[in-house]
Design goal:
With 339 residues, the protein is of the alpha/beta class. It has two domains: 48-140 and 264-333, D-Maltodextrin-Binding Protein, domain 2 (3-Layer(aba) Sandwich), CATH 3.40.190; 141-256, Periplasmic binding protein-like II (D-Maltodextrin-Binding Protein, domain 2, 3-Layer(aba) Sandwich). It is built from eleven helices and ten strands. It has helices spanning 2-42, 59-75, 90-97, 111-120, 155-164, 179-191, 203-211, 222-228, 277-292, 294-302, 312-333, and strands at residues 48-52, 79-83, 105-109, 131-147, 169-173, 195-199, 217-221, 234-239, 264-272, 306-307. Strands 1, 2, 3, 4, 5, 6, 7, 8, 9 and 10 form a ten-stranded mixed beta sheet that branches.
Length: 339
């Protein structure tokens, strides 16, 4: 009987302990599920740093500041823009990748940091594993411009001229491996001509070289070419977007001659991998609102930039679809990986 009594006494505490454990586990699970939602509701809880991998004053910087000012007003927190162009922006990318995954450090990136530079050199971050796309804020096509003294008035005449030119045309580029450089290199490959690329330290100097007629051609940001088109020193021949630009509907696309040829300079927000989905969704929604704001849209369109504000999934799809294009362009430019 003592054994039976002893066994019964032991069974009661075990049953109670199990019940308590189940209750505790359920409470912890509920807390765990509620935590991300609470975190998203509180975000941002302090100033937000927006890291820009380009110098101040350019298109990317302008977009980042327009978006940051809007987000700051909407969310009641300061959004501080920090320009970190060193290393082509790879240091900026690493800074965000290594930041706490809490949405208080944002990366306003381009294809340069996410696709091109990681394909050309060793970087201290993995663009696919360490950074999460949120939303593209704006995209801008590239325009092919030539000096006005070239005996061409349209794209077809330029192609014929380039193929029959006894020397090599020289082209400005905003730096070796820049999107404009790769776009022009791929164009030259499709045309079947050799082009000598002259690298400059950014789009401004590259554009100035074309205006001064130090170079024959330049594939640059739409805003750079549009701002100089009325001076009579350059002639715009084609745009790299898949469809004509709203601002210049008469300008033909490169794709009209070379099907499938399309490229654009996109800029969008990314965060460190592991950032709660609720925060990503909230930021995605706010970026979309910024891109739809009438004042912002008008300022971007004046620069030849198309406001976007897409979803995180759509942004990720753009990055993936761009990889084959840039890989082909890198090969066309004859660039080799340095490590």
């Amino acid at each position: 009987m003592k054994l039976e009594f002893h066994s019964e006494r032991q069974s009661v505490p075990r049953a109670r302990l199990t019940k308590r454990s189940l209750i505790a586990a359920a409470c912890l699970a509920a807390i765990g599920m509620a935590a991300p939602q609470a975190q998203a509701q509180q975000w941002p809880s302090r100033p937000v740093l927006v890291v820009v991998p380009f110098p101040a004053g350019g298109n990317t910087d302008t977009m980042a500041r327009l978006a940051s000012e809007f987000l700051g007003r909407r969310l009641g927190r300061t959004f501080v823009v920090e320009n970190r162009p060193t290393g082509g922006g790879t240091l900026a990318a690493a800074q965000v990748a290594q930041a706490p995954a809490d949405g208080h450090t944002l990366f306003f990136a381009s294809a340069g940091q996410m696709i091109i530079l990681p394909a050309l050199q060793k970087v201290t971050y993995d663009p696919e594993k360490d950074l999460m796309p949120v939303s593209i804020f704006g995209t801008g096509p590239f325009i092919l411009g030539v000096k006005s003294t070239l005996p061409v008035k349209n794209l077809q005449e330029f192609i014929s001229f380039a193929k029959g030119y006894k020397d090599k045309l020289n082209a400005s580029s905003a730096g070796s491996g820049s999107i404009g450089h790769l776009t022009a290199a791929l164009m030259a490959k499709r045309m079947g001509v050799d082009v000598v690329f002259v690298p400059y330290r950014g789009g401004g100097p590259a554009m100035a070289a074309l205006v001064a007629h130090d170079t024959d051609m330049y594939f640059g940001n739409a805003s750079e070419l549009i701002s100089q088109a009325d001076g009579g020193r350059i002639r715009m021949l084609a745009v790299s977007s898949e469809t004509p630009m709203q601002q210049l509907p008469e300008l033909p696309t490169m794709a009209s001659v070379y099907p499938g040829f399309k490229t654009s300079s996109w800029n969008g927000f990314l965060v460190a991998a592991g950032t709660p989905r609720e925060i990503v969704s909230k930021l995605e929604s706010e970026v979309r609102a910024a891109a739809q704001d009438p004042t912002i849209r008008s300022r971007l369109e004046a620069l030849g930039i198309e406001p976007v504000g897409n979803s995180a999934a759509e942004f990720a799809a753009v990055i993936e679809s761009d990889r084959p294009f840039y890989q082909e362009a890198i090969e066309a430019a004859g660039l080799k990986r340095t490590d």
